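= Paired protein data =
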Amino acid sequence: MPWPFLALDPYLIRFYRLTGHTLLDFYLGTFVLALHALALGELSLWLARRLVGRYLEETAARAKHYHDLSIEALKAGDKAAYEAANKLANEAFSKSFFQQLALSGAFFWPAPVALAWMQYRFLGVEIPLPGTDLSVGFMGAFILCYIPAYFLWKRLLRRATKRLKTAEIPPPPAPGE
């Protein structure tokens, strides 16, 4: 096991030993691992937006500007101006699209890292699906836990954001108080 996983292993494996029931512990541990991956992904997405957010907004605004110009040229019947503005709009839109795609990578990168750790721990282990005679590998079990963890995470994040927006923030104390 590589040293980063060795360093994280004692922390992560604790979540696989919560109840003493093997199957329940596996699914609980994997669910908690998925929540950690989501939290880390959200943090890195926030950091990426803080670093390049203004640039992304400029690119999107440029795409909208050229799109609006192409529509105006089309309404005016100026085909050459329309084609030129439309070409610039398409280039700006493509750039914006791929920037957003790259930004989504900032959110999802922890999931493959979590799977890499699970590979060292659970490779070759067949994990039974509760209530069925079927079994899956560690990757299938992670995906089964990641999906509900994602929806739970988004719900918790939405509630926390709503609570922060509605919270009353007291004014700063006046100098000398």
Q: What stands out?
A: The mean pLDDT is 90. The beta strands are 127-128, 135-136. Residues 37 and 113 are 8 Å apart (CA to CA).
